[in-house]
Give the backbone structure.
Amino acid sequence: MRANQFTDITYEEFRELPPKAKAGFFNVAHRPYHTLVAQQFDRTMLDRLSLLATQIRRIAKSKTGMHFLNQMLEHRRVMLYFSQPSSRTFLSFYAACQILGLKVAEVRDTSTSSEMKGESPEDTVRTFSSYFDLLIMRTPQQGFAEKMAWILSHTERPVPIINAGSGKDQHPTQALLDIYTLQRSFEKTGGIDGKTVVFVGDLARGRTVRSLSCLLTNYNNVVQHFVTAEPLQIGQDVLDELNAKDVTYHVSNDFEAIIPEADAIYMTRIQDEWDQIPGESGTIDISAYAFRKEHLTKLKINAVLMHPLPRRKEIATEVDSDPRAVYWRQVRNGMWIRVALIASTFGVDTQIDEYAKLNLA
Ligand code: CP
């Protein structure tokens, strides 16, 4: 599968497009080629990836099934370029690549690359594209993965790029695993449609919240609540997108009041790595935005408590054993949805369908 070429648009024109308008450059034949923004996914694609992830995890249960998966992309190589810290995203991508047989290389510390000699990140990534068939990257720079997709499309090696977290704006694969977790959690209670989802914590700088809020707009009648202290409230650009799609949302600072209404509560930590002055967000009183053991009695019986992790004190560890706490399931689901995403990126997902049809009861 080859990418749509960005040949008829300059980078300056492309950069100014709204995220939804960029999607036409990222998807090919209704599959993600580049995975860069949450806005490129519609309901059909989300349902497809979730179904595929479930098929893959069932196939992987047997040794013969795992051998089938292991040979699918054994002729391909992938670079994991993470210039920001990560545990889950890095390791789940690493494991996902191993499941599909991809050979993995990594740069996690730019002090070990020629960036230390003054090479630009753009030239660094172009170098990776000379050796690898897929680039998965996490960067502090908003829009950098998109920029590289545009630049590489004008070279002889326009390899696919997956955004594993960019600046404060996007974390599309986290949102995919969150949707997969919600879908599995609500399988017996009518799916995601009609549910009330409450976002709590650092909504101003949390890229997971921004991407998930966007993906939830693909479902009918989902109500979104943004609950936090004023300085950490959700950005107007997210609300503008919800207004444009006629999505019902509420912005407030009363966490206790909203707990009984929630079908899903999505807690997040303070993202103080983005502080302009080190330690400045430490002065914000966030004590009211933590989920404690006593809150469990207020939570609906079929609700779920989520967190992209890492956590600090937003969720008490005493809550972990409650069946409604699904954040460790999110961690595991992240690996399977990333296997599905990579298989789709390389267009081998139909082979998985065939295998499942023949071998799964
Ligand atoms: N959720 C998430 O992105 O975790 P990591 O930063 O550990 O990858």
Summary: Residues 86-90, 165, 174, 308-310 surround phosphoric acid mono(formamide)ester (CB under 6 Å). The first helix runs from residue 11 to 16. The chain has a mean pLDDT of 96. The domain at 172-331 is CATH 3.40.50.1370 (Rossmann fold).
